[in-house]
Amino acid sequence: MRRDVVTVGLDLAKNVFQMHAIDTEGKVPIRGQLRRAEVLKFFAGPAPYLVGMEACASAHHWERELLSLKHEVQLMPPA
C-alpha cells in the first residue's frame, strides 16, 4: 500500500503530527497521527515522496531531515 503513495501532507506540531497521504489515483490510503519519534521511521521507506508542510519554526529542521532521506519537500507559507 505505501508503494503507491506519492504525496504526503504533514502538519507539524509539538508532539503529535497529523499526516495525510495521497496515492497515484488521488485516493487517501494513509491518514493519521505520527508522534515526533515516528516521523523519520515512517519516511525511511523505499519510495521518495513529495512532502508538503507549512513553513513554521521547526519546518526547516524537518525539511533537512526529509531531504537527507531523498524526499522532495515543499514548504508553504501560512495563509
Q: Can you give a write-up of this model?
A:
- By secondary structure, the chain is α/β, with parallel strands linked by helices.
- The chain has a single domain, classed as ATPase, nucleotide binding domain (Nucleotidyltransferase, domain 5, 2-Layer Sandwich).
- The protein contains two helices and five strands; from the N terminus they run βββαβαβ.
- The protein has a five-stranded mixed sheet, with helices on one face.
- Strand 4 (50-54), helix 2 (59-68) and strand 5 (72-76) form a beta-alpha-beta unit.
- The longest helix has 10 residues, at 59-68.
- The model has no long low-confidence stretch (mean pLDDT 91).
Reported by name, the CATH topology is: Nucleotidyltransferase, domain 5
How many β-strand runs?
5
CATH H-level superfamily: ATPase, nucleotide binding domain
Total domains = 1
Let me know the average pLDDT. 91
> What's the alpha carbon Rg, rounded to whole Å?
12 Å
SSE pattern: EEEHEHE
User: Looking across the biggest beta sheet, what order are the strands in?
Assistant: 3-2-1-4-5
Content-based structural category? alpha/beta
Number of helices: 2
Which geometry do the CA atoms define? globular
β-strand amount: 35-45%
- At CATH's second level, what is the architecture? 2-Layer Sandwich
> Which CATH C-level class is it?
Alpha Beta
Distance between the termini: 32 Å
**Ranges with pLDDT <50 over ≥5 residues?**
none
Biggest sheet character: 5 strands, mixed
Give the fraction of residues assigned to helices.
10-25%
